[in-house]
Structure formats: C-alpha cells, structure tokens
C-alpha cells in the first residue's frame, strides 16, 4: 500500500545558490503557497512557556496527580520553543532514551541494512521539499532524516522501513534533535500506533475498520453519503492515519494536532478524521455536489484546500468537541477485534496493547524498566549494557564482543529491550510499507 508523495514539483530553483532564502517561522519557503497562520502574541507565548516549564520541573508529580493540567495545556498548544522537550517527555521517549544511553549513536554509526538503503534514500528527497531543512540532498535535514530512518530499520529489523514513516520522522526533526526524534518515532510506532508500519499494516487496517463506527456517531449524514457512494475509509483515510495528517493539514494546525496526539493517543486521529469529513461533506450542498464515488473521494482527498491556517484554534476546538471517550474506544475495539479474528484467524495483531495517551506510555516504559531490574537481580551479575536493543548487538565492534565473552555474559532474548525480536534474523528484500 503506497502513500501519497508530498510533491511532484521541481525544486531545482530552490537549491542553495549563495543567497539567503526567506522562510516563515516554521522554516517553509515563502511564496510556495504555504501559509503558517497567525502567531500568538508574545505575551501569550511567554505565559504558556512558563506554564510548561512549571509542568516539566514537577513532571513526576504533575503528570500523575494533575493530569488535567497537562491535558489542558496540550489543548491550548505547546509553545514552539518547548516542543523539543515536551513531545519526547509526553510519549516517554525521553525516559527511554535515558535508559538506552548511546544506543542511537551505536545504530547511527553502524552500516545500513542494504535492503533498505535505496528505498530510504529515494524517500528522503520527497519529504517537505519546500522546507529549508530538506531543500538539498546533501543538506543536514536529509542526512538526519536518512539517519533516523536507517536507525529504525536496525532497531526493528522485523518491521524495517515503511514509507509513511518518512513524513512523520521529518516533522519530528523539524522540532527536535535526531536522537529525540528517533525515540519519538519508536514510541509512536511501538506504543501509540503498533502495527501501523509493520509489513502487513494491520494497525491501520484495523483502525480503518473502526472509522465507520466513529463517523456514524459523530456525522451520520456524511456517513450515510459515504455508504451510498460505496466509499470505504481505506480509500481516503489510510494516508491520513499512517502519516498522522502531515500532508493534509496546514502546518501550524498539524503541530497543534500532534500536541493532542502525544497527550491522548489514537483517538485524536479519529477525532481529526471526523472533522475533515465534516468539512468536506457536512453540509447538504456539499453532498449534492459529490453525486458519485469519484467526486466524493476527490473532495475528501482535497480537503486541505478548504482549511485556513489562521483558523487553527477553531479547528482544535472542533477536534476536542468530537465525543470519543477512552472507554468507548476500548469497548468498540473489543467488538471489532472479534470480527477481525473471524476474518483473519492466523493474525496475532492485538490493538489492545497500544497506549491511549501519555499516562499509559509512561506506565509501559516504567514496566519495562522494572522487568529489566528484576531480571538483572534474578540473573545475578548482569554485565550487559542497559537495554541494548534488537539488531544493535550484531553491529557492535568485535573487540567489544570479545570483552563481553571474557566476562562470561550470556546474551538471551529476555535480557534486552525488544523481547523475542532481539536476535531475529534480518528480513531480506527491500520495499516500504
């Protein structure tokens, strides 16, 4: 299943030529049809920065006992200056990075898995071609993007690379350093959206099957129209979900949506889907204009043209007003899972393991740490570096491996983060998701 590309336009005229290129506050080239929207007043930005700095300084207490405060600030929007800190903090990437010190550097310095190199290199040039970070093939943005995606294929050789991870990683890199971006990508892929980027794409297929239930509840008229025209969610929402709306929202609105996503998890993706369907097909005259399957699909795929960047606050308010509780989502997941298993009796995919927001993500990271500590105590003198993951062992230098052997350490799957995937053979062949 191939996702849409960012742009097919020629950006040769934007390659570095010795003159400075004027950009907006997000780094996009001015005059390329990208409007960054209105900016909050400096006083409001500073006020929100102080709120978040207070939350960060008391994170262990505030995140657990005053979660409503964290959620309220996420709805108002995380200041741009603090997303590099807040996104990794919310999703547990910061803690996971601390527990896996130097792992990203090990992966980054290791030779790339050749079956993925060509695929990743081809995609890095396609991501946000009008952003200053990604203008040049030899620029730091494309190099960093390649490094993060390459590292993920080494960290999860059982999954490899999925094309939809490219724009997700690119947005992360626009907001934070490479190591933090890598661990955020890991948390998204493993905890928030497990199965979305696996070879069978089971996670996104499952959520596409959930979407009619969401639409029927929140916008029944549009849902009936989709049914009459034979339009299934897989026809229009796959790219929305897999790419986390990176190609379908004005950029300032996208960042606000991601603030919510890291806080609440997958239900935000459903809520945004509802709002986009409403914007495209919510009115009677809109549905009358789309009197066929193709017309309906064109309207849905082109919905970004009808979203104004300066209306980000209104968009976020509408997203938050879509009533989907965590309990509702879990109950529906159980019912949908019954149908899933009847249709796919051999599937081992289980959407119930995913984290519905930052609290569950942190619980999962802490559970992993506690399990490792217990295993270390049970095994006595454990001399392996903490949380060495997946294919990183195969990339260690021979001298370091000899040192481990001299110490008499035993490398077993349960000792290292990643479980049964630790010593798996690399999957052969290239190709994205």
TrEMBL record:
Residues 1-41 are annotated as: Disordered. Residues 77-265 form the Rab-GAP TBC domain. This is Neurofilament heavy polypeptide-like. The chain holds residues 1 to 433 of 1479 of the full protein.
